Amino acid sequence: MEVLLQLELEEEEKQAFQDLILLCNREDGTNYDSGLDYDFFYSIRNEEKKESGIKEEYLALLMGYKLGEQEEGQDILLCTAFVHPSMRGQGLFTMCMECLYDDFRGKKIRLMRKEKDEHFLHFPYIYTEYFLEKTLERPIAFPGERRGYPYGEVFFSPYNEKTLYLYGLMVENRFRGQGKGEEILRDCLDRGEAGVYQKVILQVDSRNRAAMRLYTKMGFQIKDLLSYYRGERKRKRDGKNI
């Protein structure tokens, strides 16, 4: 089997990649986006359909993009991968990763998955991004893009006709630990002017434990998550992985 690197896709290839992603979603109960908004694609084509007994055009897909930040002075590539359910455990993912390492030397690799595992295969866990949602006791009006207080500020934007996106909550250092974050949220969400917004969503990094505690206390629930792992090549000793 050969791993192919592509920077641009033809329409037929896009459809075949989307078919593989949707197949994996159905098999795994996940909801990965099939939009293919990535900078590069590694794939393994199903060249011997009669031999494999698989009808799909591709057996494996690894795709990624430059994250726009650096770690230790090196660019970070964020990647995610899909392997046909009938071909898992046969080294296809490893083949794609080896090509990625060779082609992008000097880059930091992060792998993204919709699960949390302290070690995804042999890759070290970094953190999880949680997507939280809260259904309000009563619908409220738009609180404004920025709402300021003597001890902090909060930022909102409309997500859709009935949902608000809370994209920032800041409490000044000297007021932290005094319940001011909760006070801000209760003022906006519990005592806000009546309106059409029934839900509030937000994203929070698992490393921000104080924020997780606050939002959980306020009734936000986890609706989705993305976990990130450090894509490190296995060290070798005497030609063998260790």
From TrEMBL:
Coiled coil: none annotated. Residues 99-242 form the N-acetyltransferase domain. InterPro entries: Acyl_CoA_acyltransferase (IPR016181), GNAT_dom (IPR000182), YpeA/RimI_acetyltransf (IPR050680). One of its GO terms (molecular function) is acyltransferase activity, transferring groups other than amino-acyl groups. Keywords: Acyltransferase, Transferase. PANTHER family: ACETYLTRANSFERASE. This is N-acetyltransferase domain-containing protein. It comes from Oribacterium asaccharolyticum ACB7.
